[in-house]
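User: Here's a chain of 97 residues. Predict its fold as tokens.
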Amino acid sequence: MNLLLIFVRSLCLAILLSFVAPWILIGGVMIGLDVGTRIPGLTTLSQTGESLIWHFLAIFGNGEPLEGLLVLGVTCSLVGAMFDAFAFYREQIWHSH
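Assistant: Prediction complete.
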């Protein structure tokens, strides 16, 4: 297979997975906290946790939590792309020697 095609496929996959990872992580935490609100004794703690996460996301999104989540996803995808490009470069050096 062409080396460029392999690189582009790997890069696209890394970008996609790196973009989705924060969405899954924060979504899982929010679901867990939402379940915690239904357990007596954890209601206040879970509601406080949800509120803190929404405020944290709003910081990155100029007041909009969903925009903050989008910013985190794009940032993680850029980091994932750079890491994948670096790993591909190092692999080419390793195989050339």
